[in-house]
Amino acid sequence: MKTPVKAVGLLSGGLDSTIAAAMLMRQGIEIQGLTFYTGFCVVEHNRRTKTRKRKKPVHNEALQAGAMLNVPIEMVDISGPDYLKVLTDPKYGYGSAVNPCIDCRIFMFIRAKEYMKEIGAQFIFTGEVLGQRPMSQRKQPMDIIERDADMEGLLLRPLSAKLLPPTVAEQKGWVDRAQLEDISGRSRQAQMRLANEYGIEDYPSPAGGCCFLTDKNFGRRILDFFEYRGKENLTMDDVMLLKMGRHFRLTPDVKVVIGREEGENKFMERYTSGRWKLETCDVTGPTTLVEGDPTEENLRLVAGMTARYAGVTDFSSARSTCWYNGEERVLETTPVDDAMLEAWRI
């Protein structure tokens, strides 16, 4: 018997990559799934932090897809200084927010090729669809990504394969090109038809967005950090807090983060070191963190912001407790009005 051909699949758990894996499995290809944790996936952030109350638990979508397909999944954490350089200084720039999609794909494919060699696989595949995403899934950037990752000929995109040049897997007969697809564009109708054909039922919304970096609101927070703290100082701890709460900048030296709900408030307790923490005294309210070197007047304003988000209705006065390096005191203030909040909001 011939040794089966093995392929590494970049499986996010989304519909496209799940279908791509199922398509190749039908052709007898042995699949080893690979998924990367960058620190910027919305679903994985919610799963790890558990900051939202939900009727159903949040699962890792790649692992869930692997279980459904009976495919092993290797989960690799690439968050850290090397990946942050992709964010802070991308060779090919950003998309509509602070999404360095082309550089991100190159970074991942370099890692995937190393993994492919380690396990003795013959090629790599993804669920990418030509023309589906404006920055990284057009023909020109796809070619750039393959070239810079030294992946030319080794990267198969089964859903759009008939619209792209044949890869090594097709040329050597490992994969029958005739059984691949010619899907393009942003519609998911063809994928949903294939999902029905393959019996794939439980999958995330096919047009859903997973990456914080494509979110313009989050992008403003990152750019604010770059301006006032410097790109070179960004750490994954900073990234974690940037994903939390409501963010406001009072002055170039003072930034405020206010929790949005109970789970988030509890999670923010991990980031009190080196920051002021405020909470309302007389009513249940948010946890508020203050970065920088606030003046007494700044702290009174922050206490008023905290009272506003605690739902204080008596605008004559409110009390908040402040903590910093073991020091504790109570501030009397009045809730801040919405117009002021919007002026400071990042």
Taken in chain order, the helices and strands follow as EHEHHEHHEHEHHHHEEHEEHEEH
β-strand percent reads 15-25%
The CATH superfamily of the largest domain turns out to be HUPs
Q: Rg to the nearest angstrom?
A: 24 Å
- Domain count: the total is 2
Main sheet: strands, sense, barrel: 6 strands, antiparallel
User: Roughly what percent helix?
Assistant: 25-40%
At a glance:
The protein has 346 residues and is an alpha/beta fold. It has 13 helices and 11 strands.
How do the strands and helices of this protein lay out in sequence?
Blueprint: E1 6-10, H1 15-25, E2 30-37, H2 42-49, H3 61-69, E3 73-77, H4 81-88, H5 101-119, E4 123-125, H6 139-148, E5 155-156, H7 168-171, H8 189-198, H9 216-228, H10 236-242, E6 246-251, E7 254-258, H11 262-268, E8 276-280, E9 288-292, H12 296-309, E10 318-324, E11 327-333, H13 338-344
Parallel strand pairs: 1-2, 1-4, 2-3, 4-5
Antiparallel strand pairs: 6-7, 7-9, 8-9, 8-10, 10-11
Describe the protein in words.
By secondary structure, this protein is an alpha/beta fold. The chain folds into two domains: 6-198, HUPs (Rossmann fold, 3-Layer(aba) Sandwich); 244-344, no CATH class. 37% of the residues lie in helices and 17% in strands. It is built from 13 helices and eleven strands. The strands form two sheets. It has a six-stranded antiparallel β-sheet with strand order 6-7-9-8-10-11. A hairpin with a 2-residue loop joins strand 6 (246-251) and strand 7. Helix 1 packs across helix 8. The longest helix is centred in the first third of the chain and has 19 residues, at 101-119. It is elongated and about 80 Å long. The relative contact order is 0.12. The model has no long low-confidence stretch (mean pLDDT 92).
